[in-house]
Amino acid sequence: MAVSTPAPTVPAIEGMCPHRLVLEHVTSRWGVLVLIHLLGRPHRFSELRRAIGRVSEKMLTQTLQTLERDGMVHRDAKPVIPPRVDYSLTDLGREAAEQVRGLAAWTQERMDEVEKSRAAYDEARES
Description:
This protein is mainly α.
């Protein structure tokens, strides 16, 4: 008789494939945009949210925390009233952002080819 085992916890999953998790964080929908926007200069939370557009406060917060935990984003909370928090890239984050920016530029340059391929694929599937 087989006994099911409980699902692994997050630290156990991280231990199995840590590089895959980092890749997922860096290339996630919001991770890419955060990294690219922070390449130019540090941003406050609200600035970053406006620059990215269409991201919820919750998702941006989670993305920033994840990238901060991975050592790519630095959170600088200044002890002033009202509170001021700036986000910037660490050296590791800058390196990752440069790589992601290259991939983003490539997708933009090749979008015509992708759209043609999609149209050809869809047309073939309809036949």
